[in-house]
Write a structure and sequence with these properties.
five-stranded mixed beta sheet; 313 residues; alpha/beta; 35% helix; elongated
């Protein structure tokens, strides 16, 4: 769903990332194209982009103002696992980071990801940064101040314990009444469950018991331990929870309330926008973008098939 500002949950997203405790073999089983970055007990998936080659007809579209220094400089709020966050060594990682590196490969450029406050990124694209890649939901308001190039749909999704031992049915919100569901504090999913409770109350059902946690990893641990019935989170976070728990939780049901997210380009920079859109489309057509999401345990159906500049909403 919409990227929650750092002031609400930014500090807790890093906790989600650092709580991972899986083996490299577990991660490699997810995708043959993955590698692992380890620090102590933490193993973080990394997409191997070495096979991606420069597409000269696309790199030629970039203006000299972008490519003259040989790199793409990208602003990202690195507090939002699994999209963009810092590993224990302080290096930016995540599926958005691997996506950015793949774009760089296609365009023949190195990639530098610079950590920044989320709200500061869009105003600085075109001056401090070449691009903004930080789970930016595409909105009409943002399209008025920048060009946003679509690449993924992100919504909300449920996790259940592996094998669904409690036989939880998430196919209809009314069937959630009476369940105990974990969410990360301050997220859109917490608000959604509060709205679902109004329907429970109006139809005479028991209310959903909403258990709020400072980090989604804590909710996932509670779910795998049987303390709660389900968790509700961003669909990409739900997918990553499968990795964080070593497969002890699983995503179920359809992705709900999906909205597109986009790469940010300066509003006046038509040439860069065209080059980025065509490079994204190349990653989509070649299946590379889907591979990156699979590496991170994310449902690849969320990868858009067509990239657009300021898509109609």
């Amino acid at each position: 769903m919409k990227r929650i500002p750092a002031t609400l949950i930014g500090l807790t997203a890093a906790t989600l990332a650092l709580s991972a405790c899986t083996s490299a073999s577990d991660l490699e089983a997810k995708s043959g194209s993955s590698a692992g970055t380890s620090a102590g007990a933490v193993t973080i998936p990394v997409y191997d982009s070495s096979k991606i080659t420069e597409q000269k007809e696309l790199s030629a579209l970039l203006p000299d103002s972008v490519k003259s220094d040989g790199k793409l400089t990208i602003g990202a709020s690195t507090d939002y696992a699994p999209a963009e966050f810092l590993d224990p060594t302080g290096k930016a990682v995540g599926y958005d980071v691997d996506f950015a590196k793949a774009l760089g490969k296609v365009l023949g450029l190195d990639v530098e990801v610079i950590s920044a406050e989320f709200d500061s990124i869009i105003p600085a694209v075109g001056t401090k940064y070449d691009l903004g890649i930080s789970s930016f939901t595409i909105t009409k308001e943002r399209e008025e101040s920048a060009k946003l190039i679509s690449y993924i749909n992100v919504g909300s999704q449920f996790n259940l314990a592996k094998g669904n031992p409690k036989k939880v049915d998430v196919s209809d919100t009314i069937k959630l009444c009476g369940l105990t569901i974990g969410v990360q504090t301050g997220t859109a999913q917490e608000e959604a469950l509060q709205d679902y409770n109004k329907n429970c109350e109006s139809t005479g059902h028991d209310a959903i018991e909403i258990k709020s946690y400072s980090a989604h990893s804590d909710a996932a641990a509670a779910l795998s331990g049987g303390a709660i019935d389900a968790t509700f989170s961003d669909s990409t976070v739900a997918g990553y929870a499968q990795i964080l728990t070593g497969g002890q939780v699983e995503t179920v049901g359809e992705v709900m309330d999906s909205l597109p997210q986009g790469v940010v380009v300066a509003s006046s920079d038509d040439a860069t926008a065209e080059a980025i859109q065509k490079a994204i489309q190349y990653l989509m057509d070649e299946g590379i973008w889907s591979e990156i999401l699979t590496t991170w345990g994310i449902d690849k159906s969320q990868a858009l098939p067509i990239s657009e500049i300021n898509p109609q909403l």
